[in-house]
Design brief:
This protein is an alpha+beta fold. It is built from nine helices and nine strands. It has a domain of 132 residues: Gcn5-related N-acetyltransferase (GNAT) (Aminopeptidase), CATH 3.40.630.30. It has a seven-stranded mixed beta sheet, sandwiched between helices. It has a two-stranded antiparallel ribbon with strand order 6-7. The structure holds coenzyme A.
Length: 231
């Protein structure tokens, strides 16, 4: 197995993160160095990565930011949701997943698992994100008269029909919040985005977790995180 280090991101990671971005995103989708720098500076405790310690390569990056329900509703597209900015609004307990990029599925699990004790300690309750629906274009060819949100809600054998929604469903993002047209440039999704929501496991136990020392939460994480994720 690859030796992986999972940790909060630093400015020195930009080159490795750019390589990952360019591997996983098209040119008009990938973040550039200034986007990545701005995210890490603004939200250092919400920018996480997993690295192959033998090569230094970034395997997974996850960037999040606090978001209010009002901000989420009023932003028409991904750019509006993901913007790094000062806000006068009370942040609340919700996060928005600006971006997840990965070349290694185990590292994605490691990143979510790494973040979990910090999320409980801080009082974060849920994460929203805007997912592509890469199966939409092909489905629309067969169902030209049906709206995209029919596809977004379509289930097959108890799981979302769309492969990426299915991926997130299996990661705990099970609530569909909105179907947004012109959300981001993504040809296979016909530029639609599915705004979905996942609850942070056991966060309903808040404010209890705030009083539990972080090292204890970290010790609990392997066991509990896997247990609640698979239940
Ligand atoms: C989505 C992503 C983070 C998943 O990374 P991962 O955990 O390492 O998992 P994989 O890429 O191996 O995908 C696992 C499964 O998810 C499904 N899946 C996820 N995204 C998919 C997509 N865009 N199209 C089709 N299937 C997808 C597939 O079923 C895949 O199964 P497979 O192994 O049979 O191909 C990664 O594929 C990625 O960086 N994609 C590009 C950027 C992106 O879309 N990010 C999310 C935006 S919100």
């Amino acid at each position: 197995m690859r030796p992986i280090e999972t940790r909060f991101l630093k400015q020195d990671d930009i080159d490795a993160l750019l390589t990952l971005e360019q591997t996983k995103w098209d040119r008009d989708q990938a973040a550039d160095a200034s986007d990545l720098t701005a995210r890490i500076q603004a939200y250092p405790q919400l920018s996480i990565g997993a690295f192959d310690t033998s090569s230094g390569a970034a395997m997974t990056s996850l960037f999040m930011k606090p978001i209010s329900v009002a901000q989420l509703r009023s932003a028409p597209d991904w750019v509006g949701c993901a913007r790094v900015e000062e806000s006068d609004e009370e942040p609340g307990n919700s996060l928005f997943g600006i971006s997840l990029s990965s070349v290694d599925a185990e590292s994605v699990t490691a990143v979510f698992e790494f973040f979990w004790p910090y999320a409980l300690k801080h009082g974060w309750r849920d994460i929203y994100l805007g997912s592509p629906m890469p199966g939409l274009r092909a489905w629309k060819q067969i169902n030209p008269d049906l709206p995209a949100d029919v596809y977004m809600h379509e289930m097959h054998h108890g799981l979302p029909r769309d492969p990426q929604l299915r991926y997130y469903y299996n990661k705990g993002f099970r609530e569909i919040v909105a179907c947004k047209p012109d959300y981001f440039p993504h040809p296979a999704s016909l530029d639609y985005g599915a705004v979905i929501r996942g609850h942070i496991p056991l966060s309903a136990g808040n404010p209890l977790w705030r009083h539990v020392p972080l090292p204890w939460l970290k010790r609990m994480r392997h066991l509990l995180f896997r247990l609640v994720r698979t239940s």
